[in-house]
Amino acid sequence: MCGIVGYVGDRNVYDILIKGLHRLEYRGYDSAGVALETPEGKLNIYKARGKVSNLEDFCKDKDLHASAGIAHTRWATHGEPSDNNAHPHYSQDGRLALVHNGTIENYKVLKDALIEHGCEFKSETDTEVLVQLIEYIKITNKCSLIDAVREALNQVQGAYAIAVLEKDHPHEIIAARKSSPLVIGIGKDEFFLASDATPIVEYTKEVVYVKDGEIAVMRKGEGLKLLTLDNVEAQIDVAELQLSISQLEKGGYPHFMLKEIFQQPETLLDCIRGRVVDGGKTIKLNGVEDNQEVFKNARRIIIVACGTSWHAGLLGKYLIQEMCNIPVEVEYASEFRYNHPVLFDDDIVIAISQSGETADTLEAIKIAKRHGAFVYGISNVVGSSIPRETDSGTYIHVGPEIGVASTKAFTGQVMVLTMLAMCVGRLRGVLSEEKVEEIGKCILEVPELVKKVLELNKDIERLSAIYTYAKNFLYLGRGYSYPTALEGALKLKEISYIHAEGYPAAEMKHGPIALIDAEMPSVIIAPYDHLYEKIVNNVQQVKARGGSIIAIVSEGDNEISKIADHVLEVPRVPECLTPLITSIPLQLLSYYIAINKGKDVDMPRNLAKSVTVE
To answer: Contact 554/571 with Cβ under 8 angstroms?
Structure first.
């Protein structure tokens, strides 16, 4: 959500910033801008509403030479999308330019105080308040920019990642973070700055992940300097970037989303590599093995997550309760923060986030740790905040996910939760060695089975054309297929803007059945499992009311296939693994319906890939 790019050095600053903004487009945004400082100390800001391409058009006849620069893609929080509200923002005297991700919660109090001191504001944003505050402190205290930034950040409440330029300091960028990510790339006599590593990867492999409460000083020709808000020099930990340019390109696919759907055989293989061993007899997760006593003695597990990760968490509940006999609660992280959670020191909190930067999930982690709970993270992005904030955890290792609508990260999360449940179940003596081997062997087959499901691609493409007209969809499932139904409905509404609702199939008759008619299709996930006969009855109830049915069934199905209007057959797997198989057709169906409606599937309106604000 929002994106920051910065550069100081001898390369073409503008080109690096614009390329970086394009790399960050997947995060979701509604305007873009750049601030360029010339070697002579002149500070220019150019910005435009809409796409980065609009900014490029606006800049064609502008002075673009620079020795340092910062750039931003904005996702509106305070004030509508507009040129005025776009970042960067000048301070009142035009000597400072600032970009900001996050939300300043006490901006109104600060703004009122600054107005009393004569400050005039040109935007509706909380960000302009911050740059005006920094300038006011700098002038009033007659101090350096770094001291003014430090003092200002000690006064603000909320989340931020910022980058600041100062007129007449043409080779310097000041940056800082709290609860919003920033990474610095280190080159030869140059620095790169970004919200995540995607704009940096082609220039350097040496990166520093800025920690909460740290301020970075980047000056050309000098070493990186990190300070705390208390003005204490902080340790610099240089990491090697595990990312390649090829992972950030479409690779011949028309969209990142389709590429990522088709990557799942490989990403699932990467997810289980080295973890499902001995032909499936052994499941190894270091995060569990290193904390055996914690998992053995856990009274309860609470899963916190948002969006797609929450759906994975629901599946985690089913898996853990079945395999480990531990009670599990699943909470939206945004609600967990405010519902007065009751936690004990023998509870385990599992936090799930693709980006590892989800603001609500990070706050839930902090609450859990304050209550003394053990916190386990499941994330995709190495070096992100959640892996650093948690006591232990597991990476899903599915590679960068660029499409806003999560696909391969969802199956990666479900796979990790499956392995975690098996590890803990065996550890607690609930799951036998024979059962572990039975499921483990099937897990090893899942990547090839997903390849087989992807062969339905053309059938689903044709099928989607029939249902592009629909204004509403109902997704139904039971047991493990209920969270899968929720995820399928979310995918459709995210990228096609069709209203879709996921529901437990048995609950349909307690309300949603009133909606069913010939104009409202139902997608029913009905693999062959212990609830199969039950869901056959639900399918018949929909059909009796004139509803159109798309059914996802196991190969060889001979009951639902006689009732449904359209059937997609998938391979049979153990019940606990069905979501890994049945979610694939749902992803493809959503993709093709959205394409038929002419939607931008990689960057759907109003959405952001990494939600770093509340």
So the answer is: yes
